[in-house]
Design goal:
Largest interface: A-B, 71 and 71 residues
Strand order of the largest sheet of chain A: 3-2-1-4-5
Mean pLDDT of chain A: 87
Distance between the termini of chain A: 22 Å
Structural class of chain A: alpha/beta
CATH class of the largest domain in chain A: Mainly Alpha
Number of domains of chain A: 2
Oligomer: homodimer
C-alpha cells in the first residue's frame, strides 16, 4: 500500500540510463534557478523600509541611494559568478571553489553555511509566499504557518518526481511574475511621470532627516542586500544545463541579473514615490499593486504570481541542496546516503532532509518571514565572500591570459561581500548570532564524519601481508523453547551444516528442567542438550553467559559460533503482537554485544 | 542508562521463588481491594443529587429512599459475591464464573467489559481524586487533567514494584479515610440531631415535587448505584490472600460491605440535611466537610484522605486487570505476553497496558469525572449480572446441600443487577451507547486471537507420521559490495560451512560489472561470482530474483538456501547513520517475503 502511494505521488521508477533526458534548456533553467533571486524583490525593498521607518517616514528617500548601492553589489556579484561559471564548468559552488583554492576548512565553512542557507531559502520563500496570499486575503492571516508547511510538502513531492517535470510546471509562474511586475512598474512609473500620483506622498530626495546615522544606513543597506540572495544558484547547477553548459549558464546568469535589477529598482522607486509604509499585515508589493490598480484583477494577478514565484523560489533550494550534499558526501563530510539517486533519479535523501528541516525551521520561527531573513542573508554572504576570495587566489596562482581584470572583478566582489557580512554582524547581532554558534559545530561534525569514514576505509582494506583468520569449524547453538516443528526445523538445518550442534533450553522452574531433558533424550538422542536455569525469568542473560563460554573455547580452535534463532512469519501483520517478540530482542542483543553470527530461520505460518 | 532508571523506579529484580512473600493479609487486603468500593462514596451520592437537581432542590429528599434502594442492592451483591468466593476459591471473577456456567461467549462479554472497566476504574478514580484536591484549592481547577495523569504514572510505577510493597504504602490512607469520614458523619449527625443545623435547609421527606417522574427516579437510582462499583474486586483476587484464602476473602468482603453501607448512608443523609446542591467546582463531600468543620484542619484532612483513597482506588484496577488478563491469556483470548511476570513478579505487561489506556481515556474525556461514570457503571453491572446468573445455573446443576437459599440469594443479585443495567441503557443511552459498539468488537477480537493461537498450535505440533523434510545440503549466497575485509570474512565463514557458496554482485553500471568480475577472479578464484545488473539502482529486486532461481533449484535437491548479510557494528551509536542501512532492509525483505535463512555476520569496527 505504501508502495502504491509512493507511485501515485512521485511516478514510476526511472532507469539510470534515462538520466540524460533530465537536463535543462536556458528557458527552463532561468525559471528554475532564478526564481530565488527574482523573488527576493518581494521582500528585499521592504527590509530597507522597515529599517528606515525606525527613524520615521521622512527617511524613506534614503532608500533610493541605498538601492543604488545594492545594484552596484549586484553587478559585482553577477560579474564574479560569471567568471566562476567558466572556471568551474562542472559546477562551481562556493564549497568547491573555496575548498580548491582556500583549503579544507574555508571550504567546509562555505559548504556548511550553504547547506543551512538552502534550508532557509525554502523557509523564507514559502513564508513570504504565504505573506503575499494573506496580504490579499487578510482573513487568512492567522494561517501563515500551515500555508507555508503545505507549500513545503508540495515542493518536496514535486522534486521527488524529478527535475524536468518540475521545470515544466514551474516555468510559467516565473515568467508570469516577471511580466506582471514589469507591467506594474511600467504603469506606476507612467502614472508618476505624468503626474497622476500626488507629489506630496513622499519627501523629496535630499530632505534632511533628524536622527539619521551611518549605522542605520548601513543596516538598511545590509537588509536590502537580502534581495540578492539566490544569485549563486546558477553557478552551482551548471551540470544541470544542456551542452554547452557553461555558455548556457553564463547567459542565463546575465539575463537573471538584468531582470533582477529592473524589478528591484522599480519596486524601490514606486514604494518611495507612493510613500508606502511597511506594516505587519500587508506587504509593500501588495500596497504598491493596490495603489496602482486598486483591488482589480491585476492586483490579484500580481499577488498570485508573487506567491507562486516565492513558493517556487523555495525550489531553488531543492535544486541546490541535494547537489551540494552530493559534493560534500563524495568528500565524506556528510553521510554517504546523500549520493544515492532515488527512483526518479533525484537525490531523494537530500530532498527529504531539506523538506523536513525547512518545516522544523518554520515551526521554530512560527512562520515569520522578517525573523528568518537576517539569518538567511548572512548565511548567503559568508560563502559569497569565501568563493570570491578563492577566485582571487586562483587567478594569482594560475595567471591565465588576461587575468588582471578577472582578479579585479573577483576582488571587488569579495570586498563588497565581506563588507556586507561584517555589516550584518555589526548591525543585526541579536538576530544573526546563531550563525557563530552553529557554523563551528557543523564544521566540527563534518570533520568527525570524515574521520569516521577514513577509519572505516582503513579497517575494511585488505592487507595482503596479513592473512585472514581461517575458520576451521563451526559450532551452532540452537535455543529451544519446547518440542515443536520450529525446533525440529532448526535442528535439522543446524545438523546439515555441522556436527557441533548444541540445543539450549532455559528453564524457569527446576522440575521443568528435568522433565524437558527426559523428553529431549527420547526425541533427539543425537543432539546435545544443555539446560540453563533462570531465577529471574530472563532468557537473554543465562543464554549470553553460556554463549560466552562456548565462544571462548571455540576461539582457541579457530571455530566460529553461530546462534540459530527461529522467527515466526505470521500470515497477517496484526498476528505479530500475539507472539512474544523475544527472538528479535535476543538477536539484537547477541549481534551487537557479542561477536557471534546470528542466523534467523523463518518459520512461516500457513494459516 | 535505561536499565539503571528502571532499577531506581521499580527496584532490583526478584527471583521467581520470592513469589510466596507477596501474599496479602486481611488488613492489607481490605485496604488494597476495598479502596475502589469505599472511595465510590466520594462521587456516588453526588450522582444522585445531580439527577434530582434537574427538577429542583425541592426534589432532594428523594435521595433518602433512593439510597435505601442502593443499600438493598449492596446487600444482595455482597451476599452473592460471598457465595462466589466459596464456590471459586481460586478466584471467581465474573469472567471465570460466566465462562464456566454460561458458556464461552457470556464469559467473554463479562471478561471484555471488565477489562475495559478496570481501565475506567483507574480513570474515574484518579479524576475524582483530582476533583477532591481542586475543590480544596480552587486555583488548581484548570489542572485537573495533568494532576490525574501524574497519579496514573505514580500508580503504574508503584505496581511495577510489586504488590506487597504497594500494600504497605496504601493501607494507611484507606483507614485514615474511613476514620475521617466516620468522624465527619458522627459530628454532622450529632449536630443535626441536637439542632445545631437549621431545619429550613432541606424540604421535609414526602413534600410533593412538581415534575418528578418514575423515569427520573430510576435514573437517579442508576446513577447512585455507581457507588457500588468495585465490590467485585475481592472475589477476583482470592489467590492474592494468605491461607485460608476463601475465609479471609469472605471476611474482608463483609467488612467492606459494612463500611461502605455506613459511609454511603451517612453522606447521603448529611447532603440532604444540609441542603447541599451539586456544583461543577466543588464536590458534595467537600461541601459537607466545609459545612461541618469550616476550612479547618479537619476539612483539609478529609479532602486529603479522600483524594488519597480515590487515587489508591485506582489501584484496585492495577490488582484486578493483570489477573484477569492472565486468565484471558491462559485461555488464549488475549496475547500471551500478559502471562509473563516481570522483574518484580508483577504482571508488568498488564500493568503497563492499563496505565497507558487509562491515560488515553483521561485525555479523550478531558479528565471529566461525570462523563466517565455512566460508562464505568454500566460496564460494572453487565458482568455483575452475568456472574450472578452463572451462579444460578451452577446451583441448579450441582444442587449441593442447602442450595435453595443460595440460589435465591444469587437470583436476587442477578435480577437487581439486570434491572440496573437496563435502567442505564434506558435512562442514559446518550452516554452509554459506546458499550454496545465496543463490547461486540472486543468479543470478536477475542475470538480471532483464539483462532490464531489454535491454528499456530496445530502447525507447531510434531506429527510422528509425517517425517520432517530433511536438509541434504546447503547453498550459501553472499551478496558482496566490493573487495573488503567484510567480504573476506563472510566468504571464509561461508566456505567453512559448505562447498556451495555463491557471491553475488549487483552492478549499477555495465562497465563496472566487467571490471569487478576480473578483480574477483584474481582474488577468489575458487568462489563462484554472479554479477547482476540493476537498471533501477535497487539492490533488493535483482537479488531477490536471483535468490528465487537458486531456491527453485535447491528445493528439487532438498538443499536449503542461506543468505549471508554482513552487519557493521559501529563503535558509537551515532556512526550508524553514516552507514547505508540497506543490509537491514535486505534482511527484513528476504526473511518476510522469501523462505530463506538470513545469517547476519557482525563486523565490528574497532575505531
Amino acid at each position: 500500500m505504501l508502495t502504491s502511494l509512493k507511485r501515485l505521488l512521485i511516478g514510476r521508477p526511472l532507469k539510470s540510463t534515462e538520466l540524460g533526458e533530465q537536463k535543462l534548456n536556458k528557458t527552463k533553467a532561468l525559471a528554475i534557478l532564478s526564481s530565488d533571486a527574482l523573488s527576493s524583490v518581494a521582500y528585499g525593498p521592504e527590509q530597507i523600509l522597515i529599517v528606515l521607518f525606525t527613524i520615521g517616514a521622512a527617511a524613506f528617500w534614503y532608500s533610493i541611494p541605498i538601492a543604488a548601492g545594492v545594484l552596484i553589489l549586484l553587478t559585482a556579484l553577477i560579474l564574479s559568478y560569471r567568471q566562476i561559471i567558466y572556471a568551474y564548468p562542472h559546477g562551481g559552488g562556493a564549497y568547491v571553489v573555496s575548498r580548491d583554492n582556500l583549503g579544507k576548512n574555508p571550504g567546509l565553512i562555505a559548504g556548511g553555511s550553504l547547506l543551512v542557507d538552502y534550508i532557509l531559502t525554502v523557509a523564507v520563500s514559502v513564508s513570504a509566499g504565504a505573506d503575499a496570499i494573506t496580504s490579499a486575503f487578510p482573513a487568512l492571516h492567522p494561517y501563515n504557518l500551515p500555508i507555508s508547511i503545505v507549500f513545503v510538502l508540495f515542493l518536496t513531492t514535486l522534486n521527488l518526481r524529478g527535475v524536468t517535470e518540475s521545470a515544466s510546471v514551474l516555468a510559467y509562474p516565473v515568467y508570469l511574475f516577471v511580466v506582471a511586475l514589469i507591467v506594474m512598474i511600467g504603469v506606476g512609473v507612467y502614472n508618476s511621470v505624468t503626474g497622476h500620483v500626488p507629489e506630496n506622498l513622499h519627501t523629496p530626495i535630499g530632505t534632511p532627516v533628524a536622527g539619521i546615522s551611518l549605522f542605520l544606513l548601513l543596516k538598511a543597506f545590509a537588509s536590502g542586500s537580502s534581495a540578492l540572495t539566490g544569485v549563486e544558484a546558477i553557478s552551482n547547477a551548471i551540470p544541470n544545463f544542456k551542452d554547452p553548459a557553461p555558455r548556457n549558464a553564463s547567459r542565463t546568469l546575465m539575463a537573471m541579473g538584468g531582470l533582477l535589477a529592473i524589478l528591484f529598482s522599480g519596486i524601490v522607486f514606486l514604494a518611495y514615490y507612493y510613500g508606502i509604509t511597511p506594516n505587519a499585515t500587508e506587504t509593500v508589493v501588495s500596497q504598491i499593486a493596490d495603489d496602482t490598480f486598486g483591488r482589480t484583477f491585476m492586483y490579484f494577478f500580481i499577488q498570485g504570481t508573487t506567491a507562486l514565484i516565492l513558493v517556487l523560489a523555495a525550489n531553488t533550494g531543492y535544486s541546490a541542496f541535494p547537489l551540494l550534499a552530493v559534493n560534500l558526501a563524495k568528500d565524506k563530510f556528510i553521510p554517504r546516503m546523500f549520493t544515492i539517486r532515488g527512483d526518479r533519479l533525484g537525490y531523494s535523501n537530500g530532498i527529504i532532509t531539506l523538506g523536513v528541516a525547512a518545516i522544523l525551521l518554520l515551526i521554530v520561527f512560527n512562520g515569520k518571514t522578517e525573523h528568518l531573513i537576517p539569518l538567511y542573508a548572512v548565511g548567503v554572504f559568508i560563502p559569497f565572500t569565501l568563493s570570491q576570495t578563492g577566485m582571487i587566489l586562483k587567478w594569482m596562482r594560475e595567471k591565465p591570459q588576461g587575468w588582471v581584470p578577472k582578479l579585479i572583478t573577483n576582488a571587488t566582489g569579495a570586498l563588497i561581500s565581506f563588507i556586507v557580512t561584517i555589516m550584518f554582524f555589526l548591525t543585526k547581532f541579536p538576530q544573526v548570532w546563531p550563525v557563530l554558534v552553529f557554523l563551528p559545530l557543523i564544521v566540527l561534525l563534518f570533520h568527525r564524519i570524515k574521520t569516521h569514514y577514513d577509519l572505516v576505509g582503513e579497517q575494511l582494506r585488505i592487507n595482503p601481508n596479513q592473512p585472514p583468520k581461517l575458520v576451521e569449524g563451526n559450532v551452532i547453538i540452537v535455543p529451544v523453547a519446547g518440542i515443536t516443528k520450529v525446533v525440529e526445523n532448526s535442528i535439522n538445518f543446524a545438523t546439515s551444516l555441522t556436527d557441533q550442534v548444541i540445543a539450549v533450553y532455559v528453564a524457569f522452574e527446576r522440575e521443568d528442567e528435568h522433565a524437558f531433558e527426559e523428553k529431549w533424550k527420547k526425541w533427539q538422542p543425537n543432539v546435545r542438550l544443555v539446560t540453563l536455569h533462570s531465577s529471574y525469568r530472563s532468557i537473554i542473560m543465562p543464554l549470553t553467559k553460556f554463549i560466552d563460554t562456548v565462544q571462548n573455547k571455540a576461539e582457541e580452535n579457530n571455530y566460529r559460533v553461530t546462534v540459530l534463532i527461529p522467527q515466526f512469519i505470521t500470515k497477517k501483520n496484526w498476528h505479530n503482537i500475539l507472539h512474544n517478540q523475544s527472538s528479535l530482542l535476543i538477536r539484537a542483543y547477541l549481534l551487537f554485544k557479542r561477536d557471534v553470527v546470528v542466523a534467523t530461520v523463518p518459520f512461516r505460518f500457513k494459516k
